[in-house]
Every structure is written in C-alpha cells, then in structure tokens.
Amino acid sequence: MAQPLVKKDDDRDEEADYSPFLGIEKGAVLQEARVFNDPQLDARRCSQVEATEVFFAVTKLFQSRDIGLRRMVYLMIKEISPSADEVIIVTSSLMKDMNSRTDMYRANAIRVLCRITDGTLLTQIERYLKQAIVDKNPVVASAALVSGIHLLQTNPEIVKRWSNEVQEAVQSRAALVQFHALALLHQIRQNDRLAVSKLVTSLTKGTVRSPLAQCLLIRYTSQVIRESGVNSQTGDRPFYDYLEGCLRHKAEMVIFEAAKAITELSNVSTRELTPAITVLQLFLSSSKPVAMTHPMAVTNCNIDMESLISDQNRSIATLAITTLLKTGNESSVDRLMKQITNFMSDIADEFKIVVVEAIRSLCLKFPLKYRSLMNFLSSILREEGGFEYKKAIVDSIVILIRDIPDAKESGLLHLCEFIEDCEFTYLSTQILHFLGNEGPKTSDPSKYIRYIYNRVILENATVRASAVSTLAKFGAVVDSLKPRVFVLLRRCLFDNDDEVRDRATLYLNTLGDGSVSETDKYVKEFLFGSLDIPLTNIETSLKNYVQNPTEEPFDISSVPKDVKSQPLAEKKAPGKKQTGLGAPPPAPTSAADAYERLLSAIPEFASFGKLFKSSAPVELTEAETEYAVNVVKHIFDRHVVFQYNCTNTIPEQLLENVTVIVDASEAEEFSEVDPSTGEAEDDGVEDEYQLEDFEVAAADYILKVGVSNFKNAWESMDPGTERIDEYGLGPRESLTEAVNAVINLLGMQPCEGTEVVPNNSRSHTCLLSGVYIGNVKVLVRLSFGIDGTKEVAMKLAVRSEDENVSDAIHEIVASG
C-alpha cells in the first residue's frame, strides 16, 4: 500500500481526532492497485499487508483516546485472532483497559481478552472477571457474563467457579444483566437436573424482572415440566400455575412465550389450554397480531381470524387462513373458498403449499364438499407456479381420488387437462402411471385415451414411454378398447427412441392378437403387479447370467428377493482373515448370492433346495473378548442352518478344530504361536468358551419385500384370506414405540413411509408387506390408537395368498 507522504508530527500524538489515513495520496493508492489487473499476478506483491502487519499497526492505536477509533481497535484484534506470541504484546494494554475509568474500555477489553486468551492467562485475570460480573455498570457486567458463556465451551472448570457471582448478578435490576446471568447460570447447571429444578423453583417466586429473562425462565420451566410429568395423585403439573400467571404479565413477549409453552405441553387438557387460547384470541384483534394455531382448540377465534386474511403481513394471513381451514365447519367452506381465491395470487409458493395441504385436510374431513374444493385445486393447478407447488396440488388431488370414490372421474379429468400443458416430466409420468391404474376402472375409460396418446405425439422420450405403458394397461383391462389400443401401439413402433419402441413391442406381444378378448391373468399381473424383487438383485443376476452362458433360459424366480448392504453382512476384526464358512468368496455380488454359493458348495446342504433368507449376524460374544463369534441364520423351506463365524483377535494364538455344540458350551482347541517364528508349538491347550443364547424368531421366516402401490396390491389379494382382530399392546411411551415394536416383531417391510408417526398423533395406520416362507405374499394393515393413560390398542388386518399364513401372522402377534 502507498506510504504516507506526510509524517505525523510528535506533538500530535495526543490529539484525539488524528486520522490514521492522514497523508495518504489517492492517486498513489490507485496506481499501486493496478497490480490486481496484471495478466500475471504477483501473489506476494498483492498481499503485502498481512494479518501480522495489520495487527502490529493496529496495536499502536492504543495511544488514541478517540472512543470510536478505540472500539475499532478492539474489534480488529478480536477478529484477527492473533497467535500466542502476538497476544502477549496486547495483553498488558488490555489488562490496563480492564481497570480503566472508562466503562466502554473495560467492557470491550473483557470481551477481547476472553476471546484471544488461553487457559493459563485466564487464571490470572479470573479475579477481574469475577469483579466485573457484579460491577454496577450493566455494560461491564453483561460483557463479563457473555464472555463467560463463550468460555464455558473451552474452560468449563474455571467458569463453574463463578457460580456465586453469577447468582448475585441474576438479582440485578438491569434487564440485560439479568438475562445474561440467567443464561450463564443455566448452562453451568444444565447437566444437573436437580440443580435446574431448584433454580426454576427459586426464580418462579417473582424475583425475575427482565422480560427477556422471564422468557428464558419460561423455557427452562417448560423443560422441567416435560421431565417431571403430571402428578399421578393430584393430576396437576408442577409450575403450571407459574406459566398461567405469566399470561397476565405486562410484557407481550412474556405472554406469548407463556401461551406457546402451555400449548406445547404433552397431553395438554382443555382446562389447561383455555387461558392460553383466550390471550391468543386477544392478540388476534390487537394492533400487533400474532397468529398461532392449535387445531380444534381455537374454534372460538374464527371470527377474529377471518379479518386477518387481508392482513398486509402475508405470513400472518397464511397462518390465519390455514387455521380457519382446519377449524372451520362444513357451512363455512364455500365462504372460505371465495376469500382464498383472491388471496392465492399475492403469496409465495411456500405459503401456497401450506394452504393446499390445509385444503386437502378439509376435503377429507368434509367429503361432500369435494366438488368445490376439487374445482379450486384444478383452477390453481393451471396457474403459474414452481415444481414443489404443482407437486403438492397433484398429490392432493391423487389422495382425494383414492379416499373419496365420487371424486375419481372429475379428479382424473383435471389431471388429464393438466398434463396437456405440463412442463415437469416427473409430474407427467406420475400422473400417467396413476391414470393407467385408475382410469380403466371408471365408467367410460375411452375418454382418457385421447389425452394419453397426445403425450406420445407431443412429449419427450421419458413421458412417451410412460404413455405407452398406460395405453397397454387400458388395453389389458378394457377388452372393448383393445383393438384401438393395438393400432396406437403399432404406431409407436416407429418412434425414434429405443425405450418407446421396446415397450410397444413388449406390450404388443403380451396383449395377444388385438381382438376383443379377455386378457390372460398373468399379463394383468405383469402390468399391474408390483415388482417384489430389488432392481439391484435383478441387475446382479442378469450380469452373472451373461458372464456364465448357459442353454437354460433366465429364470426370474431364481433372483434373491432379499438384499443386504454389506457383503456377507459380517463384522470382522481389522486385519484378521476368516476361514471356513466365514471367509467370503471372491468378490461376491450381494450377501444373498454369497451365502447361497457358500452353502451350495457344501455337500450336506446341497439337497436343501433354494435359500429363502439369511439373517443379519447375531453377536454371541462381547466386543472386547479374545474370540469374536457371531451366527447367521440361513432359512430353507424345511431346514435351518446356523453359520458360526469365529474370529481370533490374539496374534499369538492359532485356533484349530473349532466346534460348536448347540445347547452346550463351545469346545475349542488352540495352539500357542511363537511370535518370532510364527510356527505353532507342538502342545496345544484345549479350552471351552461360553457363547450367548440366541433364538430363531418369527421374523426370520418372513422376507422384507416392499410393494409400490399398497392399495392395488391389497385389492388384488383374495378377500377370503383376510383375517382381522384387535389387540391391546399395554402402556407405551408413544405410538412410535408401539409401531416400531410390531414392525420388529413381524420383520416385514413398511410401505409408503407409514412407519413414521406424526408428532402428538393419537392414531396412526401402518402398512407392511413381505413374503412368508414358501414364497407366500403377505400384506398387513395396522391401525394404532393411544389414550390419555398411554394405553395402546391395535387393529390387525392381514391378507395373503394362503389363509393359513394369515392365521400364522395373528398367532405371531398374539404370542409376541
């Protein structure tokens, strides 16, 4: 950078208004800045002023008495984060400022010292920091407290010694000091539940004056309430009276924080909720409205909330309209739809998605109003919008079609009109797939053919291929349409995309000769059935078939239906090689293939037939033991094979003649190995080693196999095989725990994301699918409910290809 052309005079050292930029010539600076435009940059020349040079230059400004400039000095030193050697240079100046008569110097010196110092120096200035915490000046006290909050992450033992001073600062009359002191005191005690409870108990008696500190205390109180639960004898919550008292505080932020805390209590009752809803209702009509929703509990607020739909704050307007949609009654639906129509054009896509989801919930709540709600969804579907917004609308229409039978035909037509001008390939293919499944079941399937074939003519290759599959589904189900579908599929044989041509050729050969005749059952299963084999397994099996030519045709039934992420799925000690059955074959393509190859290579197991399932390894020893043993359960149709994998973790020992005795101890013979020569000694030592027990559970006989469309798969099963019963699961912490317990018990694959239970949900439906031993497909529909005492009830419905298997699933649950 250009050097000053004028040197600072000695007699100006004490002038407070001296500028560090005095004497710098603008032209010289611009001239030197041209180096940044050179074709060959000189990195060293461009970075002449390094952080160290800046640091030393800045430290000279400690002589300045200008308050603004001094604040810039503190800021610069804190941001540069000097090295340990450089810190020593400014430490004395900062410690001098800590004892200055100027409060601004003291506060900033504390902040900077705590930022750049280490544990050794911290012990030297600890006395000053303790004094600063109880200083009469709130700026200095807050600076020390905030520094303590930061230091607690790096030097917790030192900060914890300040508890008495921090406790005294909590009683300060300064709002920010009390706020920072309470935050620091809670962090010091946060790992001690009893200490936190005592802190909340002492402070809820009215010693906190700062609204900010009061909000913090409300949050800490809510935490204690959640951990304490409800008093089993009186039914009261601890500290609830304090939260209710905060609803009458003079500060609005405290009132809102208390109302929020009450509404977020677990299993909150109507009596406890009423005071919070009352103050929130007052907020809705105030000049500073706050919108907050609690479905069905805020019905009394609807009149006040309707005025918020036109609020200039679009966030508040969105929350108001979604709350009205969730809490309104059937008679108010039409009026709300008229108000929303003008409202939608003024908000962003993320708010529109919230409104669409609320409309979907309202339609499911009042099915008779599906016409007006469906028309509204179709109208906004034709407007401008991004992918997520359009996807939310399409998903809503699809859900309404599935759950409200009367809405099927109008909903399908709305979707057909949308794909005529849809710019999103994903949405077009999803709609075409859904149309292929639902369209042939309508009263007049022929009216959808035009929309589908338009996609073959006008769209890209991905959408065209999807349209070909949809046409084939119509031809397979509706016999009268088969000749017309054949004509359209033949035209697709001349498409310029190979995927479209291949699909057309496949469907022309599977649908028959094109005459008006009933389609074979296996063709319908091929078109509408779900693929119950992982694509990874199909790919692997096809590669193996190509690499090992044979005269036999490829048999898809030979493809394993189970896949594991780890080859052999076995845990091995680092650097140790397994032997025997535990050793993997060269480059196994999947766990199922690897196990099947291992077992088929052993003559005793060759006659057992095809392997149905192999379990994940079950550890039979502790992780720290000298021998690591696990077992893999291989399930055949009529046999069960236990594969024990034993790993030696002691280099000086060599395991020999390892045998396993079921229902007894494991006998081993190992030899001592000389570490220097690596040769085994002649005399071995015989030893017995106890293993943990394990069991063959019901889940071992069920294979996890998902279905892409559970509803279609369920309807395709024979209703005569359905078995329904109800079970009590006893007290549970939550519905999530109950759902996971049943899924683990049955060992089946959750479908459509139904294993996830929404927060605070009192009921839930979970869908499971799998294959029972003997290749019998099984579908399970679980309906859970939980009451106020956390007792969980479950309704279990099972359909399968064999009614005996349906009975077996119920027996598993009943005995589990």
TrEMBL record:
Protein name listed in UniProt: Coatomer subunit gamma
Organism of derivation: Rehmannia glutinosa
Biased composition (Basic and acidic residues): 561-573
Subunit note: Oligomeric complex.
Function per UniProt: The coatomer is a cytosolic protein complex that binds to dilysine motifs and reversibly associates with Golgi non-clathrin-coated vesicles, which further mediate biosynthetic protein transport from the ER, via the Golgi up to the trans Golgi network. Coatomer complex is required for budding from Golgi membranes, and is essential for the retrograde Golgi-to-ER transport of dilysine-tagged proteins.
Alphabetically ordered keywords of this record: Cytoplasm, Cytoplasmic vesicle, ER-Golgi transport, Golgi apparatus, Membrane, Protein transport, Repeat, Transport
Localisation per UniProt entry: Cytoplasm; Golgi apparatus membrane; Cytoplasmic vesicle, COPI-coated vesicle membrane
Ranges where the Coatomer gamma subunit appendage Ig-like subdomain domain occurs: 594-666
Family note: Belongs to the COPG family.
Gene3D superfamilies, A to Z: Coatomer, gamma subunit, appendage domain, Leucine-rich Repeat Variant, TATA-Binding Protein
Classification lineage: Eukaryota, Viridiplantae, Streptophyta, Embryophyta, Tracheophyta
Domain Coatomer subunit gamma C-terminal: 699-813
Membrane-related topology note: Peripheral membrane protein
Domain Clathrin/coatomer adaptor adaptin-like N-terminal: 51-513
